[in-house]
Structure formats: C-alpha cells, structure tokens
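Q: Could you fold this chain for me?
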Amino acid sequence: MHLDVLDLRNFYYRTRLGRVAQRAIRNQVVKHWPPASGQTVAGFGFAVPLLRPYLPEARRVIGLMPGPQGVMPWPAGMENVSVLCEETAWPLPTGFVDRLVLMHGLETSEQPSAVLDEAHRVLAPGGRALFVVPNRIGLWSRRDVTPFGFGRPYTVAQLEAQLKRHGFTPERSQSVLFAPPSPARFWLRTADFWEGFGRRMPWLAGGVLMVEASKQLYAPTRGGLKAAVKKPLRVLEGVGKPALNRE
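A: Sure. Below is the predicted structure, expressed as structure tokens.
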C-alpha cells in the first residue's frame, strides 16, 4: 500500500530525521552517478528528493508518482517536472531513460512485477536503474516513524533475484542509513559519523538497501535458414519456365 504524498513530503522536507535520510541516500546516489549533461534522469515512487543534483546538467529530469500515492509539484520555485501516472503504464517511450531511480515505489506497490516490467521497458540500452528499498534486517524497516517502515522490506538476495526475473543484471549493492531511526538530537547530530563508520564496516546492516542494475540486452537473431542447401533437388528445375516452341 502506497503512502500518501503529503506524508512523504512532510517527512523528507519538514523533519530533521527526513533531511538526514535524504542527505545520506542522495550522497550515495550521486557518488554512483555523477551528474552528466545530455542524460534523461527519471525517478518513480517518491524519488524526487534524490534527483535535485541532476537538474542543472541533465537533458531532462522526470518525477513519476503513482496514482495511489498522489502527486505534488516539484521542484519548488522551478518549472514542474513531476507527473502523476499509473503503476503499470508510465507515460514515457520505450528506451527513453538513461538513469532511473525507484524509491518508495517498489516495496509499497501491490503490483511489483508490473512496476519492474515498466522500469525495464523505459530504460535505454546501456541505461542503469537504482532500486532503493527497506533493508529487512535493518532498524529502519522495524519502525513506522519513517516511510521505510511500510511495505515489503528486502534482503539483497531477494531483490537481486526479483530483478533478474525481469531482465535486469544486478551490478552492485550497498546499504545506507546506519544511524538509528530516532529523532533524538544526539543521533541526528552524529548521523554523518555513523554513515562513514557503517560504510567501513560491511558487516553492519544499514536501514536501506541500494541495488544498481543494468538492462539485459540480447543479440538479435536472424530469421530464415542460415545453411545453404548442399544438394538441391534438380528434378524441379525448369518447372514454371515457358516451353520452347518446336514447330
């Protein structure tokens, strides 16, 4: 079940804990994908907090927000790029997107397979997708004070297996949000320390998983018979040719 867009907006833009989560996740997204000119960058679910660094240089930035969640204008003070859409029919041409981010769009959907099919369809050959989901063994999926406490949490193996079934090739994965999901001042002030500490300790479970995947491409197959007929039947030679007039 999708969260309401107003609840998501209030968390990420009006609470200190939400701003901490936004900064930690966005920093890792930009680390993987530095902004580059000429690219089409899209987000599905409520991924717009992660897309702002791409606004100055990308060819276009698109925020796709599913109908059950609702839509809000974004970015504030600039021309709107957010779009209300159906989960199973995104208003984008096939192969249109170079970089695609999904956050609060997969784990809360009642049709995750259809969401992944659409993600695969709109992604360009050679494009990359980044799936941001609650970590099943992390603290953030166990507390409903944040949006990551709703929906289906994943392990890396579960998410990668689902991606492979829908034509994606997982490339790398990591976890983020190592600070506890607490609005207490101490944890908020030390959030950056815990993020750095957690990345140096791979055995620690962050609250959120990020899996980057590419679109599988298959070599085109040629139709028809490839092998030449070594011994053609000669009995049919001349059939269909006009007979010579012997008169």
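A (continued): The two ends are 89 Å apart (CA to CA).
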